[in-house]
Amino acid sequence: MAAISAYLLPLSLLLSLSFFATADDRIPDHGLLLGPLLGAVTSKSVKVWVRGVAEVPFSVSVQKGREGEDDEKARREANVPITHHCHILLRAEDDYSAACTVEGLSPDTSYVGIVQLDGQRAVPLIGDGENFFSFTTFHSPDRDHTLPTSTAFAVGSCILHLDRPFPIFDDISSFHPRFMLMLGDQTYIDYPPYVIQPDNHTWTRWGSLAEDAEWTKSLEMAPVRTVEEYNWKYRLTYADKFFARFYHRTPLFMTWDDHDSGRDNYDLGTGSDVYKLSRRAFDLYQGSHNPTWKESSSVWGKDSPRVRDEVEGVYYTLSMPPLVEVFVLDTRSFRSLDSSEDGPAKTMLGDVQKEHLFAWLDAWHEAETDAIQQWIERGNVSAPFPRFRFKLIATSVMMNDYHNNGNDSWGIGFPTEKKEVIEYIRNKKMNGVVFVSADAHWGGLFRIHPYPEREARKGFMSYDIDAKRQRVLERIHAYNGKLADYPIMELSTSPLGYPPFPLSYELTVRLAKNAEDIAIAIGRQKMYTLINAVHPCPRPAYSYLSQHAHNSAVDSMREPCLQISIRNDEGKVLADFTLMASDLLHHRRDVVQNLDVFSQTNAVDERKDRYERNTNAGWKERGGANTMEERKIEEARKSGAKNDPNLRKTEEKTSTRSTPPPSSVGLSPSGSGGGEISTLLKMEPLFVGTTVILGLVFLWYVNGRGRRQQRRAAVGEDPR
Q1: 558 burial class (0-12, 13-18, 19+ CB within 10 angstroms)?
Q2: What angle is formed at CA 255 by the lines to CA 250 and CA 257, rounded to 5 degrees?
Q3: Angstrom distance (rounded) from CA 355 to CA 362
Q4: Helical axes 415-427 vs 351-378, angle rounded to 10°
Q5: Nearest 10 degrees: Cα torsion 367, 368, 370, 376
Q6: Does residue 196 have a pLDDT over 90?
Q7: Rounded distance, CA 677 to CA 672, Å?
Q8: What tens digit of pLDDT does each residue of 95-113 get?
Q9: Is residue 575 within a helix (H) or strand (E), and if so which, with residue range?
């Protein structure tokens, strides 16, 4: 019965959507089926996506949000003044969907807006009935990197439309992320049990519940035949009220993975019919509000001969000044068959995408490497940290070697190409690289090596709530400075809305073998990750410099960081980490060495300065010469330079000073006081030694005399 009820809820929504699809004549042309959905945002623009019900003009109007104005008040506004706008036509061949780009916006500014269809304010048909959106643009690329910055964004993936509703999005929204990066499987095109019949918009079952369950276990592709069938799966996801409320206020950057590119572990390339259908649906519902490659590459590669204007895949870059740059990979369009033999010819990225990835890494590396190197060589912790960018490489599949999904991931199925990418980063000593991955329905934080599994290590930390199937493993190996010894990291997080997987025995064994490289592994949890790029950042005790640099001044060093929080769908914090910029420097050992040298030099100089200040203060009270002048006289006398005119001038200068008062010397107020204390100081070693010896002799005598008196008293003699 429970299994049947699990299918009734999605069926009810499908029937309601079918009503709107078959009854366009009953609703106005300005009816809004889905949206407004906020897409790619920059410091100057934003994309707004909608899905209507008729071929009508679509326009977006926005204005700056007034300071202190909340969403409720803005929503009550009858008309939003048009200060920025865009116009486009909804067409039937595009499933009545389109994205409109609003340009000319100001950096780091809040905006509110509405959608108009056919010249009228759009009427929402499903969801929360909202035709209002709000967002904040990114900082300007020219922003001073030394200014305080705190910019948060979210990462997640895997939303099974049959697992609705998705209240997890309300929890994410409570943190007000600037945007969300969604790393694939935004819908499951290949999943039963319902498939639409395009001829009459009716829904039929694939078979009995047992047959559907068996099909799901086999993970074979459902025979979807038209792009309309793909589009309906997207509509199921986008119609969820929690997700809709979220994308009204949070811009989304998306990519695809296997389930929204055709089937589980899709590897058929761009030539198959499955790819053509799924790519068309992706372009309508995800790609249209993403940045285009030409738009995104113009930020960093406009002068590079290695960068093409147009590409075949769905990859792109995004820039979130001043601290974060992201390359969003396409891991499905160009991949070789998972089952093919590994080697130089086997690829997940394809030659063109890989060349663009390397060009992007080179561009940001060259822009900052000289400044970082100069800062390291100075070793001055008080100097401002140089311009630094965290370079996030978003991959829909895991990079590590622990993935339990066959040959679909980098580490298991494509180790040669993985090694090529990692060694390119390592050999060029690129700083601040973090891979952000998804897909596997478990997550964690790992250190990435270019080589396969190494020898077994002692213990690791995992988090698996299902105590019946697998006991919760206690914390054996926690995150510490050792994890940062190798500065290429991977953060993995999934799923958002899909039954999560436990950490299997096979996976547990792999994790245990590589425990030294694992901060945390999390299974059997719906999860998402919040990343906050902060400058300056409080330094945790487990950071690399805190562990290795013996310099108290390191605590006051101002540098950026990524504050990472992995949370589940109940709002519980599963893991919190802070990755400092210095944790991700390939020259971090040079930093430690130079900081120690700088610290020792400063300590010596500080002791000298303190001695000079104290000594000079005492002499000035007495009206005497300063310490440096006295040293010059003493050194000149020792060297025999009695006729040196500078020496005579210095002696004349010091001899004219007044005699110090008695209180500053501590001896009798005679003119010889200075001479007496000088003689006494010269005799200090002999005087102290003699005093100690006499004191010891006196104690020995007194102690012996006391014992003799005790013995005499004991035998009845006179103690005296």
Answers
A1: middle
A2: 130
A3: 10
A4: 30
A5: 180
A6: no
A7: 9
A8: 999 999 999 999 999 999 9
A9: strand 573-580
Banded pLDDT at 598 (limits 50, 70, 90): low
Q: Give the total residue count for the chain.
A: 720
Specify the amino acid at residue 90: L
Torsion-angle region of residue 637: left (phi > 0), alpha (psi -120 to 50) or beta?
alpha
> Which residues, 6+ apart, have CB-to-CB distance to 683 below 8 Å?
none
Cβ atoms 691, 701 nearer than 8 A: no
CA distances from 462 to 213, 445, 454, 468, 507 (A): 30, 11, 19, 15, 11
Structure tokens of 198? 């395009």
Label the pairing between strands 324-328 and 443-447. unpaired
E strands in 332-439: 390-395, 433-437
Angstrom distance (rounded) from CA 409 to CA 437: 10
Q: Confirm if 437 and 421 have CB atoms less than 8 A apart.
A: no
Return the DSSP state at 264: T
Residue 95 falls in which region: left (phi positive, over 0), alpha (psi -120 to 50) or beta: left
Q: Is 591 left (phi over 0), alpha (psi -120 to 50) or beta?
A: alpha
Supply φ then ψ for residue 710, to 5 degrees.
-65, -40
Residue with tokens 């605590």: 555
Q: Which amino acid is at 36?
A: P
187 contacts 161 by C-beta, under 8 angstroms: yes
Alpha-carbon separation of residue 141 from 323, 325, 559, 671 (angstroms): 10, 11, 19, 73
State yes or no: cis peptide before 719, omega within 30 of 0: no
CB 246 within 8 A of CB 172: yes
In single-letter form, the type of residue at position 50 comes to V
Query: Nearest to residue 274, comparing CAs of 238, 229, 244, 331?
Result: 229
- Per the CB < 8 A criterion, the answer to whether 207 and 181 are in contact is no
| Nearest CA-CA partner of 488 in 390, 571, 411 | 390
CB atoms within 10 A of CB 412: 22
pLDDT, tens only, 423-461 = 999 889 899 999 999 988 888 888 886 654 443 333 334
In the block, residue with structure tokens 């093919």: 340
Which amino acid is present at 490? Answer: E
**By C-alpha distance, which of 346, 261, 354 is closest to 311?**
354
CB neighbour class for 615 (10 Å; exposed up to 12, middle 13-18, buried from 19): middle
151 φ/ψ angles, rounded to the nearest 5 degrees: -130, 115
Q: What is the pTM of this model?
A: 0.75
Q: What are phi and psi of 676, to 5 degrees?
A: -65, -45
